[in-house]
From TrEMBL:
Gene3D superfamilies: Tetratricopeptide repeat domain
Name of the molecule in the record: Pentatricopeptide repeat
The PPR repeat ranges on this chain: 9-43, 44-78, 79-113, 114-148, 149-183, 184-218, 219-253, 254-289, 290-324, 325-359, 360-394, 395-429, 430-464, 465-499, 500-534, 535-569, 570-604, 605-639, 670-704, 705-739
Similarity comment text for this entry: Belongs to the PPR family. P subfamily.
Length: 912
C-alpha cells in the first residue's frame, strides 16, 4: 500500500493495531503505534485505547501507564474507555487502591464511568471477598443513572458466592427472575460455582439440570465448573461421566477442563494410571498442557507416594519449556520434606531463586516444617532467620512450626525464647501459637509452666479454643493429673466451648492409664449423650487399656462392637489386639488376627510384625519369629533396631547362641544389642565370649552402660568368680556410672558369698555415695533373707555394708502388695526380723540399721509390744534406736532427718 503511494490513515493503522492485539501480538501493535507519528499520522484515542487495553490484559502496566500519560502530553484526551482499561489492568495486577485513584480521577475530569467501568470495579471487589462493598457500589451506580446490566448482577452474585453468602446469592438470583431479567449461562454458572465452592454439590447438579431444561446449552465453562466441583467433593466417577457427556455433545474440552479432572484425581488411589490417560488424551487433541496441568500431575504423584514419577513430570515440563511456578515448587518441596529429604528440598529452593521464581511464605514455611519434622532444628533456625533477609515477614505459621519443632526436639527453653521474642501485636489472637507451646510444655512434663502460660494467655484477652484445651488436657492426663484435667474440661464447658472427640479421647485415655474405669465409663457416655460417636481412636484406647490389664476377651468383644457400629478398624486397632493376645501368650490368636487383617484389606506395618515377633519370642516360638522377620523384608518393610534386638533376645533366651551370634554379626548394633548378646552369653556360661564382645563394643566406639556392667558382674558372681566381679565393679566406679536397682541386687548377692567385705566397703562409697537409685521388691527380699543368716556372715558387718548401700541408693517407697511375707514365711521368723522387713519395704532405712545393730548386740531380741497404741509402739522403736546413737558406725546415718524415717504405714508394719 505504501509502495503504491497510498500512505495508511489513522483508521487503517487502527485496524492493524486491533488485529495485532486480537492475535496476542501486543508488542507489534505497540511498535506500530510508535511508527504512526514517524509517518506523520497522529494516533487517535482509539489507537491508544486499543494498545493500552492490550498491554493491561497482558499485565504490562508500566508501558500502559506511560502510554496513558503520553496521551495527555500529545493532547489526546483519554475517554471512558482509556480509564476503564487502566482501571481493569490495575485491578488484575492487584493494585486496587491505584485503580480507585484513577476512578476518582476520571470523575474529577468529568468523564462519567459507564456500566463497563462499574462492572470492572464490581468484579475486583467481589474477587477480594468484599461483596458488601460491591453491593454498595451497585446502588451508587443506580443512583448516578447507570443501569446495571446482566453482567453486573452476575458479578455481584459471584461475589456473594465467593464470600460464602449463598443466601444472598440465591436471593439475588430469584430477584432477577422476578424482574424479568433473562438469565444466561453466566448467571447459572455463578450460582453453580457458589454451590460447588460451598460444598453443596447436589444443589449445583440440580441447578445445572434446571439450566438445560430451560433450553440453555451448557458451555465449556459450565461443564468445567461442575467438573471441578464434583472432583473436589470426591465424586470422581460422576466427574468422569460428565466429561464423557461433554465429549458426546460435541463440546471440545479445553486445558482448564483437563486440569480440573486431573486435579480432582489427585487424592485417589490409581491416580497415575487414570491421570496419565487424560494427559495423553489432551496431547492427542492438540491441547498443550500448562503449568497447572503439570502441577496437578506432580501433586497427585506426591500424594500417592510416587516421588520418582513426580520428579519425571517435573523434568518433562522443564524439557517442554514450561517453567514451574511457585505452586509447583511448593508441592514438590512439601512431598520431599514429608519423607525427610530436606537436602533435596533445599536444593529446590535454591533452584527457584536461581530461576527467578520468588519463594513465598508458603515455600519457607514448608521447608521450615520439613527441618522440624526431621529434628534438624539448627537448619530450621537458620532458614527462619534467612526469611527476614529475603524481605519476608514471619507469620503465625512460621512461629508455630518452629516452636512446635523445638518442643518436639525437647528444646523447650529455645521454644520459650522464641515465644518471648514475638511482640504482643504479633501474638494478638494467635491462639494456635499458644496452643503449640502449651502442647510442647506438656510433652516435656512442664505442666505447671503450661498452666501458667494458659492463664497468661487468658489474661491477655486471647480466647482459648478447643485445640488449646485439648493440648493442656492431654498434657495433664499424660502427667497423671487426671483431676486437674477434669477441672479444665469443666472450665472449657463453662466458657461455652464444646469438647470434641479429641477432648474426650484424651480424658478417656488418661483415666484408662490410671485404671479408673468408672470415670472412663462416665466420659464415654457423656460423649455419646452430646451426639459425639466414638471413633476408631476411642475404641483403640479402650482396647489398649483392656489388653494391658490382660482382659483380652473384653478387648475382643469391643473390637467386634466397633465393627458392628460401622467404625472400620485401622492398622492400630489390629496391632493393639494382636499385642494383647501376645501379652496373654495367645500367639496363635494373634496370627489369626493378622490373617483377618489381610483379608479385610489392611496391610500390616512394621509395628504389626514387631508385635508378632516379640510375642513369638516370648512364647519360645523363635522359628515363627524368624519367619515373620523374613516376611517383613519381602514386603519391603525395613525392620527397626528394636525388631532386630527383640529377635536377638528371643534367640538368646531360647539358648540358640550360635544362631544369635550369626544374627548379631549381620546387623548394625546399638548399645542395647551388645547388652542382649552379652547377657545371652553370660547366661549360657560363655563368659569369655561375653568379655570378647565387651572389648569389641569398646573398640567400635560403643560406650558400655550400667546394664552392660551389671550383666557381666552378675555373670562372674554366678560362677563364683568374685575377684573378676569386683574388678568390673571397680571399672564401673572409675567411669562414674550410676548404679541402679540391679546393681544393688548384685551387692546384696555378694553378702551371701565369701567376699572381702572390707574391699567392698572401700568400693561402695566412691562408686555409689553420690548417686540415687532404687531397690526393687525382689532385691528387698534378698536383703531380708541375708539379714537372718547370722552364722554365715557377721550380722553387724553385713549391716554396715547395708548402711552404705541403703544410704547411697536412697530407696523409694516399695510396693507392699507383693506377697513376700508368704514366700519368706515371715510369720515363722522372730517378730523383730518381720518388723525389720516391713520397715524396709516402707522406706524407713534407719530403723533397719538400728534393729540390725540391736539384734547383733543382744543375746535375745527384745519382745516387740503386741498391744498398745501405734504411738506407744513408735516410742518403743525410737527408745531402742536412741540407745545406739553412740555407735560411730551409724552416727552419720542417724543424723538424717527423723521425719523421713517415720514415713511408713504403721498398720502394715505391725500387721494390724
Amino acid at each position: 500500500m505504501i509502495k503504491l503511494g497510498h500512505p495508511p490513515d489513522a483508521i487503517t493503522y487502527g485496524l492493524l493495531i486491533k488485529g495485532f492485539c486480537r492475535t496476542g501480538k501486543i508488542f507489534a501493535a505497540h511498535e506500530l503505534l510508535k511508527k504512526m507519528e514517524q509517518r506523520n499520522c497522529k494516533p487517535n484515542v482509539v489507537a491508544y485505547n486499543t494498545v493500552i487495553d492490550g498491554l493491561c490484559k497482558e499485565r504490562v502496566m508500566n508501558e500502559a501507564l506511560e502510554l496513558f500519560e503520553e496521551m495527555s502530553r500529545k493532547n489526546v484526551s483519554p475517554d471512558v474507555v482509556s480509564y476503564s482499561s487502566i482501571i481493569q489492568g490495575l485491578c488484575i495486577s492487584g493494585d486496587r487502591k491505584k485503580a480507585a485513584k484513577f476512578f476518582n480521577g476520571m470523575m474529577e475530569q468529568r468523564i462519567m464511568p459507564n456500566v463497563i467501568t462499574y462492572n470492572i470495579l464490581l468484579d475486583a471487589l467481589c474477587k477480594e471477598g468484599r461483596a458488601a462493598e460491591a453491593h454498595g457500589l451497585l446502588y451508587v451506580m443506580i443512583r448516578r443513572g447507570e443501569e446495571p446490566n446482566k453482567d453486573s448482577y452476575n458479578k455481584l452474585m459471584d461475589g456473594y458466592c465467593l464470600s460464602g453468602k449463598m443466601g444472598d446469592a440465591v436471593k439475588l438470583f430469584g430477584s432477577l427472575v422476578s424482574k424479568g431479567i433473562e438469565l444466561d449461562v453466566f448467571s447459572y454458572n455463578a450460582l453453580i460455582n457458589g454451590y460447588c465452592k460451598n460444598s453443596r454439590i447436589d444443589e449445583a447438579v440440580e441447578l445445572f439440570e434446571e439450566m438445560r431444561h430451560k433450553g440453555l446449552m451448557p458451555t465449556i465453562a459450565n461443564y468445567t465448573t461442575l467438573l471441578d466441583g464434583l472432583c473436589e467433593a470426591g465424586r470422581v466417577e460422576a466427574a468422569q461421566a460428565l466429561f464423557d457427556e461433554m465429549l458426546n455433545k460435541g463440546i471440545s474440552p479445553d486445558v482448564i477442563s483437563y486440569n480440573s479432572i486431573i486435579h480432582g484425581l489427585r487424592n485417589f488411589s490409581g491416580f497415575l494410571k487414570e491421570a496419565t490417560k487424560f494427559l495423553k488424551d489432551m496431547k492427542d487433541r492438540g491441547i498443550s498442557p500448562n503449568v497447572k496441568t503439570y502441577s496437578s500431575m506432580i501433586h497427585g504423584c506426591c500424594n500417592s507416594g510416587q516421588l520418582q514419577e513426580a520428579s519425571k513430570f517435573f523434568g518433562e515440563m522443564m524439557d517442554r519449556g514450561i517453567p514451574p511456578d511457585v505452586v509447583t515448587f511448593n508441592i514438590l518441596m512439601n512431598a520431599l520434606c514429608k519423607v525427610g529429604k530436606t537436602k533435596e528440598a533445599r536444593r529446590l529452593l535454591e533452584m527457584m531463586i536461581q530461576r527467578g521464581n520468588e519463594p513465598d511464605i508458603i515455600t519457607y514455611n514448608t521447608l521450615l516444617n520439613g527441618y522440624c519434622l526431621a529434628g534438624q532444628m539448627d537448619s530450621a533456625q537458620e532458614l527462619f532467620d534467612k526469611m527476614v533477609t529475603r524481605g519476608l515477614h514471619h507469620d503465625d505459621i512460621s512461629y508455630t512450626v518452629l516452636i512446635n519443632g523445638y518442643c518436639k526436639s525437647g528444646r523447650i527453653d529455645d521454644a520459650m525464647k522464641l515465644f518471648k521474642k514475638i511482640t504482643p501485636k504479633e501474638l494478638k489472637c494467635k491462639v494456635i501459637t499458644h496452643s503449640s507451646l502449651l502442647g510442647g510444655l506438656c510433652h516435656c512434663g512442664k505442666v505447671e509452666s503450661a498452666q501458667t502460660l494458659f492463664n497468661d494467655m487468658v489474661d491477655q484477652g486471647i480466647s482459648p479454643n478447643v485445640a488449646t484445651y485439648n493440648s493442656i488436657i492431654h498434657g495433664l492426663c499424660n502427667s497423671g493429673l487426671w483431676s486437674d484435667a477434669t477441672k479444665f474440661f469443666i472450665d472449657m464447658v463453662d466458657r461455652g466451648i464444646s469438647p470434641n472427640i479429641i477432648t474426650y479421647n484424651h480424658l478417656i485415655h488418661g483415666y484408662c492409664i490410671s485404671g479408673q474405669w468408672k470415670e472412663v465409663t462416665g466420659f464415654f457416655f457423656a460423649m455419646m449423650e452430646k451426639g459425639i460417636p466414638p471413633n476408631v481412636t476411642t475404641f483403640n484406647i479402650l482396647m489398649d487399656a483392656l489388653c494391658k490389664e490382660r482382659k483380652i476377651r473384653e478387648a475382643h468383644l469391643l473390637f467386634i462392637q466397633m465393627i458392628r457400629r460401622g467404625e472400620e478398624p485401622n492398622t492400630v486397632s489390629y496391632n493393639t489386639l494382636m499385642d494383647g493376645y501376645c501379652l496373654a501368650s495367645q500367639v496363635d490368636n494373634a496370627v489369626k488376627l493378622l490373617h483377618s487383617m489381610l483379608a479385610n484389606g489392611h496391610l500390616p506395618d512394621a509395628i504389626s510384625y514387631n508385635v508378632l515377633i516379640s510375642g513369638c519370642c516370648k512364647s519360645r516360638k523363635v522359628d515363627d519369629a524368624l519367619s515373620f522377620f523374613h516376611k517383613m523384608h519381602q514386603k519391603g518393610l525395613k525392620p527397626t533396631i528394636c525388631v532386630h534386638n527383640t529377635l536377638l533376645n528371643g534367640l538368646c533366651e531360647a539358648g540358640r547362641l550360635e544362631a544369635a551370634q550369626t544374627f548379631f554379626n549381620n546387623m548394625v548394633p546399638d548399645v542395647v544389642t551388645y547388652n542382649i548378646i552379652i547377657n545371652g552369653l553370660c547366661k549360657g556360661g560363655q563368659l569369655q565370649d561375653a568379655i570378647k564382645i565387651f572389648l569389641e563394643m569398646e573398640e567400635k566406639g560403643y560406650v558400655p552402660n550400667t546394664v552392660t556392667f551389671n550383666t557381666i558382674i552378675h555373670g562372674f558372681c554366678q560362677k563364683n568368680e568374685i575377684h573378676n566381679a569386683l574388678k568390673f565393679l571397680h571399672k564401673m566406679a572409675e567411669r562414674d556410672l550410676i548404679p541402679d536397682a540391679h546393681t544393688a541386687s548384685i551387692m546384696i548377692e555378694f553378702l551371701s558369698k565369701d567376699v572381702n567385705h572390707q574391699e567392698l566397703m572401700k568400693l561402695l562409697p566412691t562408686s555409689f555415695h553420690q548417686h540415687e537409685g532404687k531397690i526393687d521388691v525382689m532385691s528387698a527380699s534378698s536383703l531380708a533373707s541375708s539379714l537372718k543368716d547370722e552364722e554365715t556372715c557377721g550380722f553387724l558387718e553385713k549391716a554396715n555394708v547395708l548402711i552404705l548401700l541403703l544410704y547411697s541408693t536412697s530407696m523409694h517407697t516399695l510396693d507392699c502388695s507383693y506377697p513376700l511375707d508368704k514366700s519368706l514365711n515371715l510369720e515363722a521368723q522372730d517378730p523383730l526380723f518381720s518388723w525389720s522387713f516391713y520397715i524396709l519395704l516402707n522406706q524407713v532405712r534407719l530403723n533397719l540399721i538400728y534393729l540390725a545393730a540391736i539384734a547383733d548386740s543382744e543375746p535375745q531380741p527384745p519382745t516387740m509390744p503386741g498391744s498398745g497404741s501405734l504411738q506407744e509402739r513408735e516410742v518403743y522403736i525410737w527408745s531402742r534406736a536412741d540407745d545406739m546413737v553412740k555407735d560411730p558406725s551409724i552416727h552419720a546415718v542417724y543424723s538424717l532427718p527423723r521425719k523421713a524415717a517415720r514415713s511408713f504405714h504403721w498398720a502394715k508394719c505391725t500387721g494390724t
